[in-house]
## 1
Amino acid sequence: MNVPDWLWIATIAGLLGVIILDLVLVDSTPGDFGPPQALRWVAFYVALAVAFGVFLYAWFGAQAAGEFFAGYLTEYSLSVDNLFVFIVIMSSFAVPRVHQHRVLLVGVLIALVLRGILIVLGAAALQRFAGLFFLFGALLLFTAYKLVRGDDDDGAEPGDNVVVRTVERFFPTTREYHGSKLTVKIDGRRFVTPMLLVMIAIGTTDVLFALDSIPAIFGLTQEPYIVFTANAFALMGLRQLYFLVSGMLERLVFLSYGLAIILAFIGVKLILHALHETTDLPVPEISIAVSLAVIVGVLAVTTVVSLLYVRSHPGVVATGPAATHTAALRHESEELELLGDETEEATPAPDEQ
């Protein structure tokens, strides 16, 4: 697949243009960014990804389009699990809801740049050392094992983020938000606001997940252009999905198992490919059509079974540090409302004082 330089430039420019349009349109609308707006934007970004896949089919053929759709679905589904961690970060920094869309937007831009660097390095390494497919495959199998055990919580707490700690160490920071400002001048001194810190936390924490997801998509395609665009479209739609399903994530009780199956499947595919490239053994290779069917099938079954199970077991929610954190926040909010109601009942009316 020969991708000309002008197509790379046009693609990156187009993605940046869409992101800027998103930011301008959302910021021009006062009030919170709620589920109705999120649903429209999610539909827009999914339609955009489908249109891009059709373009790849027309320009490069069915193989390229199939690899893109398989990679896009894999990256998007893995990113859904990351939303748990985004909820933790947002809650820990107490980000006002009206600013959460901008925080996610800039955080995603940071993540996209860092992922782009990892993709370039990964593609170059795989071209020179085919044996790395063994390492990537083993990494995915280990990640699948961690997901089944419920241990996939690396970097969940923003206080553990080395970049955030470095910024706080070398720059004076405030604990109060000043609108959407990243820095503010107080008494003649420049301070970094929590707005900048939370953007850095989301963008750099995403790289930890990219260490798992990028090897996964390299198991579906070794074309850097497809790897990058699949990641870009998944990340661009991710922040909209945050507002749409942030209250529904805990209902996907079997999501981790579904993602573990997908990662294990791609891990085996990578190892088979590595054996094919480095040995003369007659090992089979898994086609992109089979990969796409497995990914779509596992995601559909996982979602349906999760929702049916929760319906028959109303008290069951997804486990994990972020799910526990959001449940604790909800419980705390309910306690505060109850306390407020009791205070109102205990306060005498004005004519009784």
## 2
Amino acid sequence: MERRFSSKRRNRNKEKVENLYKILGTRSNIGQGRIKEKYIEKVKEFPPETHPEEFQEIRRAYEILRDVNKRKQYDMRRKYGEKLEKIMEDAIFSMAKGEFEKAEELIGYVLEVDPDNIPVRLTQAELFLDMEDIEKFYDVVDGIIEECDTDEKQYILFIKFTMLHSNEYHEEAFAALEKGEEYITDTEEYHKLKIRAFLDSGNFQQAWGEFKHALPSVNNLTIGDLNMLTCWLNVAMNLGKWGEISKIQNYIRKLSKTIIDEEEFFILREDLLEEADSYQEVSRYREADIFLQLAGQIFPKDEVVRERRKEIQPIAKLEGELDRLFKDREVIPYVSMKIQEMFAEEYFDNEYYDEFLNNYPHEMMEEMEQLKEDIACGILRVKKKYPSLYKEFKEELTDLFNESTKGLNREQRRRLR
């Protein structure tokens, strides 16, 4: 018999908090990293096409439990009722206002009522970090780790790491992970945590080395790995590791072949298009095209994907040639910079075009402006080696060539042939 989810509102005066964990088919002690896995399992059981009401309940439960802060608030409401929830809301509000003494007093009151309340104790630890009292922070969190079950120790350790890192105690965060390494059994989540921390710090190179440990083998991928795969692809592009792109794309293609559920296909398609959108918004067309190319391979009949790729691909080709042009030592930088200016004017939005102009090397360009023969020679090389760029900006480059060859003597003109 199929399970039904009740959507009726209960009596307001005797409202019992519904069990969101039960809706997802799990228990309240589930690790944060497994919430999405349980959500996907339930969506497979109750797809939106055939079970729209049940799907909405599942989605709502997932949206609350996937967010660490929302989950913490829900757990308190479910276990301790409205009174303690109100006190903790006041405490968290006081923390946000910087009223640390008041927050400490309120949290202390809640812990007198229920000293084993782990979410409240973690909030107390967060308060001590806000107060820059790291010793008290350690006392609270290490006490929780010592007292909790073996299976839960690693997740409290992960929370400890995240709190320290987000408060810019970066060295202390990694030292805490190393110290608690004996508790870690979920190695994939461990490496994912390190990746997020490295990326938050802008350390793409160190994050890069963690990806091979944070993912299962290419034949064991699930939709739950999609976020880490797209993150891996983004890091590769940010580091300029273009030779690795096809390998990562292959991982995502392999993932797509394991999917049989329409909801998961929808998630995959939306993720690829959102990534492409985010790059297009900042005028990074080559990166946008990489995601659209992948979407086109996985969804070859999708008209939206095809139209987006048709729009972006020619611009991405220009951008690729422009990247190569800047590395070409036979082309004077003046020419490369002029073409970059033409490209920016045509394809950057106003904000990024203004930023480009603010960083424009005016002095350098003025100094090289007199190198007429070198400029003309550079334009001829662009015509020969970078046909897409030359075709796109032919009129402007022709004018620049004619201007640069004015006044050249016969020998100089002969060298340009």
## 3
Amino acid sequence: MPVAAKTEQPGPRPATGKPLRKRNQRRRRISPQAGRALEILGHAIEYLTDEYMYSGGTFCAQDPQLQAIQMLMAFNRQIYFECPEVQSLSERFLALLHLHTA
């Protein structure tokens, strides 16, 4: 059974400490295969980032370790954004009534 996940974009935080919500946040339907791939990539990214920080690496764009982390993060985003968006409740309701918004 596919899982719906919410698109979270980190943004500025107001004084309350809660992130500001963007109007275009959409949930995505993540298949079990995509979910497993995202999980594996997330663990790999976390592991490589931890190793890099513990080794005392300096941030340089040509660093192969950083390039590997960036590549894994790009694959992670690609898989996530290939998952279909879930319609909002209002969109489903309007579709049920055969009403279209322009």
## 4
Amino acid sequence: MEWILEPLGASFVQRAVLAGSLVAVLCAVVGTWVVVRGMAFLGDAMSHGLLPGIAIASLLGGNLLLGAALSAAATAAGVAAISRNRRVSQDTAIGLLFVAMLSLGVIIVSASGSFAVDLTGTLFGDVLAVGMEDVALLAAVGCLVLAVAALSHRALAAATFHPQKAASLGLRPRLAHAVLLGMVTVAVAASFQVVGTLLVFGLLIAPPAAALVWARSVRAVMALGSLIGVASVVAGLWISWYASTAAGATIALVAALSYFASALCHAATRPTGSQRRSPPAAVVPSTPHPEKETRAPHHYA
């Protein structure tokens, strides 16, 4: 038993567990909507789109978190602007911004020898170097995002599962989509210092996807995804302690493997010949007051 608890004896591991758990919960709540709405490619593009802002902030001696947030916001705004052209699909717009932002970031990094030293930490994170000020910032950002997610849950559910009904009820699905983009921007920007720009996508997508195998409602996916994300952080840190591997990458790998383990366990426990599990249900009222639960269609808006 002592060898299991030994890593927690180090103060920097304790801070890493706390910061990683905050990131896991934050990413699970936001990532649930990303997964349910089929926006995984957007999450990937935004996580890679942080690089130009981080590079510029580093060159100017500014705040890296602010640079990351502005860069992610620019990516989201660019996708929304390009998507207004009906001849260009949203996937195409995301792909264009993905390539443009990542290429710009690499160009800025390659032109600055001083920043190249910190590139590994920026891309893959350094969760073991997290300080209490980082933990406090993550806690504040997490509380803000959770409050916004709670207030916008009804509008997001309606816009996701019944966009036409949402518009008729005055829930403004376009505004709900913009709010979701804002939450993804904040979550990705706040999390990059812990797991890096390339690995934050793992915590944003994998735990909610693993939870989606079992959960039958959006709130249940958020709750179970948070638990899976926290477990991935703890397991990843424990493995990296004894295997001497990169902590952020190990956490991301454990999170990704959690989906495959969840899918295999579900397939093994499902009775032969049983029907396929329905997608998560969402409370979408037919009047301005919540009434009954409605099943989500197989194809999300």
